[in-house]
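Weekly puzzle thread! Below is a chain. First person to post its structure in token form gets bragging rights.
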Amino acid sequence: MRILVFEYITGGGLVGQALPASLATEGEMMLQTLIVELKCLDDIQLCVPLDERCARSDMLSQSEIVTVSAACDIFALLRDLLTEADLFWPIAPESNGILQSLAELAIAANVEVLLSNSAALAVCANKYATYQALKKCAIPLVETRLLDQWVDGLGDNIVIKIADGVGCLDSLQIDAKQLPAAIAELNDPQSYVLQPYIHGQAASLSCLFKHGQAWLICYNHQQIVLENGRFSLQGCLVNMPTDKLDFYRNLVNEIAEAMPGLWGYVGIDVIENAELGPLVVEINPRLTSSYVGIQQATGINVAEQVLRLRHADPVFRVSRNETVQISIN
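Winning reply:
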């Protein structure tokens, strides 16, 4: 079975543009982890596009590497590579519809893509659409409003985010009184949303989904720094102990029922507030940074289980129970 593995940042998605060091590091970590897990399996051939600016690691040995130059049309290249692929596994941001476009590229080529369906990808790519979908099912989540909606009730501190932004990118925490001035400085105000700034532990859930079913793999802490109103993800602690496991198992099941189009590996960001409890912040329908530490922490080969989802339910063989630090910046 031949799998085309495409990590957007390191695989040529930014050819002709600057290659941000932090994003490239994060992308490389996820790519290398996925390659290692897939190489442990029988009868797997891997094809991996790689930006010419990115070094070839030893982990990519025995994989077919396609070097992507600055003059390359990455979508045209992927169309060509898909003609020889049995499966497509993209790792890409949801912003600007990139992840959804990659999924649709594979569908057009009649190649199975290891992602949620297009409708679910579209909802998860927009924070307001995600909020609306989950709110209908009474799932606890951080209130999210469009920028032109009334600000009363959001509190004294507000977070402004791009509706289809990824993680901490383009997120700004400000005093509510500063909102009019902050909006005036935005290039495209209609592409942003507002959320209350909620104190608490930033956490994430690493999960598998399959057409209305869900399995929680592990619970993680996110190490997020707020400096001068800007958020940055420094790393994560994978497979942290928690007394909320039953709550989170129920939560992911509720999300699976609310969004039955979710499939494969999904990361769910939450904030744990002392008074309000855990609240969903966003859903990432793709590999996330926490994925990098799962096998080391639990012994579970996540890639193997995602492939298993195609014909059966996952089977988690936990051979260890450790907490693993993943550093990004």
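Puzzle host: Confirmed. Bonus trivia for everyone else. The chain has nine helices and 15 strands.
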